[in-house]
Design a protein that fits this description.
single chain, alpha/beta, Alkaline Phosphatase, subunit A, eight-stranded mixed sheet, 24 strands, 31% helix
Length: 555
């Protein structure tokens, strides 16, 4: 009896000890992910455009760590987001283009960020454009589907009837069809820019013009009588949702942590936002990108096999040509497009501010990690391109800011190159979760590396990740399952190397040539080339090294 009593006492004591230890554990951090579509490095703190007004993105960047050399791994919405959210490089999954990641054998058998956090007790909540193709069962709660509106419509809003370009956009840009038959929503999306305006009574080809939503609210009328009598834009709806939901979470007694992701569409085309944002950038004062005449002449994206690449190569070229040919003064088209892009950046900055207000003004500020990223950049006329999907700085560089309470220090800047592939392992590390993300033998492990060392010390040299950021651009459907037959770039802190599947190469010294004006491999050699090739091989091994034509011939 005595032994039993002692045993009982010891058991009870052990239980109390376990409970006490468990209660002393640090609570898991909450996570807020802010995804912005097609946002290049224009925001303040990233020095992409001197006129950009982005006080909220700037404030977030200055409150934590801003990565000054962060890059997209594939500068198209679908593959970029799929890669980031599964942690798998495109060349490892062969998910290079806009085909749904849900049909990719590797990616569907690898846990997404949402699935990983959900299975570890997080309340996983989202709204807006996070993945290019959503999967609702990844989330505990998902609110609004991606919506590219408001878009202009001619005639009745009904299924099967496409929208049109903003009524102020002239031809040929307003049509903006692409060689090879790939329309990608034509003028409705990519050929459209301008302020919201009252179009009541306005007719085109005898049919009345109106505004409409897209996405899950497709064909629903978007009311616009004036700035003070209109519906909320999709991004405003998502910002309002996020603010409300975060305030509810702050007031909740739920002890489970949350992962909340909100995706904003602008500055993705159509570049349509309220007039007040256009008023911030009077057309006569808009500064164009720093464009060098004939800059494309020592580059090779224009000259890769047209049959292989079809419209995927030519879209950025066609958009540029249509834009400059739509106005008597070629610079007017670029100015109007730049004005619209800056207006959309200012609009999305307000949306970010609404989200951050809900975090900073509640208890969430003390235990909520905030990550802000874009899926890729956007070229604004440089090298005669207007679009994404190229391997140069403007298309690949993105804003990336991370704030971690108790870890990051304000006004920290990281100069080491990183990429979106590193976001997933970073969040797992910060949340104290393992990095096992494989569902079965068909899945693949994470390719990126935790950025936590940089969050602790922005100048650290103790990081296990690569020396360069890797980016790929899709060449053609013919090569979709042949990773070595696409176009690749590696970007170190001071250099960029590009190799096309034709074997043509480009090399830039970004420290002295930040706009990548001088291709050091154009009809000549350069001692830096072999070092950059070696870095490319190291990052892509074992998938790529023996496939790229120029690397092959040097073996």
């Amino acid at each position: 009896m005595k032994k039993l009593t002692i045993f009982s006492i010891l058991s009870i004591s052990l239980c109390f000890f376990i409970i006490k230890c468990d209660s002393n554990k640090e609570p898991k951090p909450n996570i807020v992910l802010i995804m912005i579509d097609d946002l290049n490095d224009y925001p303040e703190e990233f020095n992409g455009h001197p006129q950009a007004v982005t006080p909220n993105i700037k404030k977030l960047a200055k409150s934590g760590v801003s990565f000054q050399h962060a890059y997209s791994n594939d500068p198209m919405c679908g593959p970029s987001r799929a890669s980031m959210m599964t942690g798998i490089y495109p060349h490892k999954s062969s998910n290079f283009w806009q085909a749904s990641w849900l049909k990719n054998e590797v990616l569907v058998n690898t846990k997404t960020i949402m699935e990983k956090f959900k299975e570890n007790g997080y309340n996983v909540i989202g709204s807006g454009k996070i993945m290019h193709k959503n999967k609702l069962d990844m989330w505990n709660e998902f609110e609004h589907a991606a919506d590219y509106g408001p878009v202009a419509y001619k005639g009745e809003h009904k299924k099967g009837k496409r929208g049109i370009s903003h009524p102020d956009v002239p031809k040929p840009y307003r049509v903006n069809k692409v060689v090879g038959g790939l329309n990608m929503a034509g003028g409705q999306i990519d050929g459209s820019y301008g302020p919201l305006k009252n179009v009541n009574g306005l007719k085109i080809d005898g049919e009345e013009i109106s505004w409409a939503y897209g996405g899950s609210r497709a064909y629903k009328e978007f009311k616009y009588n004036s700035e003070h009598d209109r519906d909320l834009t999709p991004d405003e709806i998502n910002a309002q949702w996020a603010e409300k939901r975060l305030n509810e979470l702050a007031e909740s007694n739920d002890e489970n942590p949350f992962f909340l992701a909100v995706g904003f569409l602008r500055p993705h085309t159509p570049l349509i936002v309220p007039q007040k944002y256009f008023d911030m950038y009077p057309l006569e004062k808009v500064q164009l990108a720093n464009i060098k005449k004939n800059d494309k002449d020592d580059t090779y994206l224009h000259y890769v096999d047209q049959f292989e690449t079809k419209a995927r190569r030519t879209r950025s070229i066609e958009m540029y040509e249509n834009l400059v040919n739509s106005y008597e003064d070629p610079n007017e088209g670029l100015k109007r497009f730049t004005q619209a892009y800056l207006a959309c950046v200012a609009a999305v900055d307000d949306n970010v501010g609404q989200v951050m207000k809900a975090i900073n003004n509640t208890k969430l500020k003390d235990n909520t990690i905030v990550v802000l990223v874009s899926d890729h950049g956007w070229t604004m006329g440089e090298k005669d391109h207007v679009y994404k999907n190229s391997l140069w700085e403007e298309s690949t560089r993105i804003p990336m800011s991370i704030r971690v309470p108790g870890l990051t220090k304000a006004n920290s800047k990281v100069q080491h190159p990183v990429s979106l592939i590193d976001v997933y392992p970073t969040l797992l590390d910060l949340a104290g979760l393992d990095n096992n993300t494989i569902k079965n033998e068909l899945g693949k492990p994470l390719d990126g590396y935790s950025l936590k060392p940089f969050l602790k010390n922005p100048k650290t040299e103790k990081w296990n990740g690569p020396k360069a950021a890797l980016t790929v651009v899709y060449s053609s459907d013919k090569n979709k399952d042949i990773p070595s037959n696409h176009h690749y770039s590696v970007r170190t802190k001071d250099w960029r190397y590009i190799i096309y599947n034709s074997g043509k190469e480009e090399l830039y010294n970004n420290s002295s040539d930040p706009k990548e004006w001088d291709n050091l491999l154009f009809n000549k050699s350069h001692p830096k080339r072999d070092e950059m090739v070696k870095i490319l091989k190291e990052i892509t091994y074992p998938v790529i090294p023996n496939g790229l034509k120029t690397i092959e011939k040097d073996e």
